[in-house]
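ok trying this again, last paste got cut off
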Amino acid sequence: MSLALSGIGVSRGVAIGKAHIILRGSLEVLESAIPAELIEDEIARFLRAVDAARQQLEDLRGRIPQTTRADIAAFIDTHLLMLDDATLVTTPVDLIRELGCNAEWALKLQRDAVVDVFEQMDDAYLRTRRDDVDHVINRVQRILMDDGGDADQDVAIPLEGAIVLAHDLTPAETVMLEHQGISAFATECGGPLSHTAILARSMQIPAMVGTHGLQRYIRDGETVILDGLRGVLIAGADERTLDYYRQRQELEYQRQLELARLSDTPAITRDGLSISLMANIELPEDIDAVSRESANGVGLYRTEFLFMNRGTPPNEDEQYDCYVSVIEALKGKPLTIRTLDMGADKQVDGGNRVCSNPALGLRAVRLCLKDHSLFKPQLRAILRASAHGPVRLMVPMLSNTQELHQVLSLINDTRSALQRESLTFSPDIKIGAMIEVPAAALSASDFASHMDFLSIGTNDLIQYTLAIDRVDDEVNYLYDPLHPAVLRLIKMTIDAGTAAGIPVSMCGEMAGDPRYTRLLLGMGLREFSMHHTALQEVKRVINSSTVTSLVPLVQELLDNTTPGRIPGRVDSLNHSTR
């Protein structure tokens, strides 16, 4: 009898192979008192563990073939940098001295404090960076607790064709498993925005996360089927089921060949409409992937990573240098820089301000307008960087035109100050607003009359409209991009931009989901921005679509939003030959 386990598909594709279970139990950290005369010895033990963890990662880095793309290897580099971060190294040392506790407990306390900061973040993408903190800290903890020594011993054996099942996988383990020849993996933990999930998509490994009960119901060595598109793991399949998935494998192989041929072709609809496909990035190292996928530029550069894991905010020159490096790497393609989208609940100085509802609190532009010491250096850095290439400045979480006018006034003041100092900047830099609050979408025409462009942030717009947290297992089933209210707000924003004669882009996950591409084209969207791994799939849909035929079909869909019927209508759009 067959058994099917469901999870979240994060990297499409079908794999059939033997299950290889990586057993690694959860860590139970206990507090113990350290006598005063042994405190320095305990600190030395902790620092040795950090050094050993660093050596493990460096050894892994050295075992990666030279042919590995730089953006893939960079995930291991990120964890190496975290081991040099005072937040994760110096603070536990201080706690050992202050509390007289063991190193494991001090590290746990600091882990809880750092993870709490991430969990308070409203941006779901940034929130999943807590996984990286856990991966790095667990590596050190296992060394301290002598729990298996080398955390990577499970990925040092040949695994050609195996489907790895694990409680969790770090990015470093994922890279090494790929080079060991695995065909797919499934984990009990993780989400679609984790670095491990992003890696799977980048390396085109079928994968799923959030698959509960893996180690309870699956036997090591038995044949399993993993469907990364639908998020299903099947054990004990009969021959008929195996034949069906073998056919799916062949279709997926042909699809990948087709997508590979698209990388150097433009996104143009059948009726000759050129569509702009941009990429979302978070680090300068992401530019290599943007270039490889032939994106038209960067539609969202998240600047938050410049401000995180440090004691003080980056100064103007540090930000300027970083922005200029990205501009130069883009070689004339436009860069859209989003101003700081963090909140008072996640201050860079480790402040302990309590916010009962961070998603609705002092964050993004609200924080920047309250704390000019954060905002002004960033505005100056962005404006100065604009002298080196095409730059657009984008402001997140605007909810009313009063905030907008305050921002525009600060930008004008910054321009005047730079002129007085004889510092160059582009006088034509474009200023845009992110539409991610329902109030902003309802007032889109007011925003459009003052801005050079609008960008729809669907991740937050959907969450705020439906009052749900999409990374909360208890309510994420309610997260619905096709909810009639969401579609009306998107259409309202696009129409406002069209009426004002300014471009409207979309930079949320909905833009990178090919299931919605034709719907969005029919609604009037002409600029998409997404993770680089989704670009060719979306382009494939665009190149097979006829917008003049889609517009009336989509309008009919929007005029008849009977509950429960919209998904079926969207499926009809996607299967249409028009």
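PB: full thing came through this time. Residues 263 and 293 are 6 Å apart (CA to CA).
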